[in-house]
């Protein structure tokens, strides 16, 4: 199962849990797994079927370019981090 790191801003939904494991082959399935463990977390990660614009997903240190469809390996590390905007 993939290791999923919960951002500080969402740890109130996980009871303070900073890391968990989820089964899934892509980001969508990982988020669905998180929702099963911690109801309400999906609404904080997803908007209109896509990752919220204020968040980025990093898988094994690389920012996911395909959003919800980005592949996740069984031994991956998944991080949800605040997106960095620039101008």
Q: How is this structure best described in words?
A:
By secondary structure, the protein is an alpha+beta fold. The chain is 18% helix and 29% strand. It is built from two helices and seven strands. The N and C termini lie far apart (37 Å). The model has no long low-confidence stretch (mean pLDDT 94).
Key descriptive features of the protein:
alpha+beta, two-stranded antiparallel sheet, five-stranded mixed β-sheet, 2 helices, 18% helix, globular, 87 residues
How are the strands of the largest sheet arranged? 2-1-7-5-6
Structural class: alpha+beta
H/E series: EEHHEEEEE
Summarize the biggest pleated sheet.
5 strands, mixed
Give the total of beta strands.
Answer: 7
Q: Regions with pLDDT < 50 over 5+ consecutive residues?
A: none
Taking all Cα atoms into account, the compactness measure Rg is 12 Å
Total helices: the number is: 2
| Arithmetic mean of pLDDT | 94
User: How far is the first residue's CA from the last residue's CA?
Assistant: 37 Å
SSE arrangement:
Elements: E1 2-5, E2 19-22, H1 27-37, H2 41-45, E3 46-47, E4 50-51, E5 55-59, E6 62-63, E7 77-82
Short précis:
With 87 residues, this protein is α+β, with helices and mostly antiparallel strands.
């Amino acid at each position: 199962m993939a290791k999923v790191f919960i951002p500080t801003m969402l740890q109130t939904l996980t009871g303070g849990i900073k890391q968990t494991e989820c089964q899934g082959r892509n980001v969508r399935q990982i988020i669905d797994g998180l929702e099963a463990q911690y109801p309400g977390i999906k609404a904080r990660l997803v908007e209109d079927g896509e990752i919220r614009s204020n968040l980025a997903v990093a898988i094994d240190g690389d920012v996911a370019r395909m959003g919800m469809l980005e592949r996740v390996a069984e031994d991956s590390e998944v991080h949800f981090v605040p997106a960095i905007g620039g101008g």
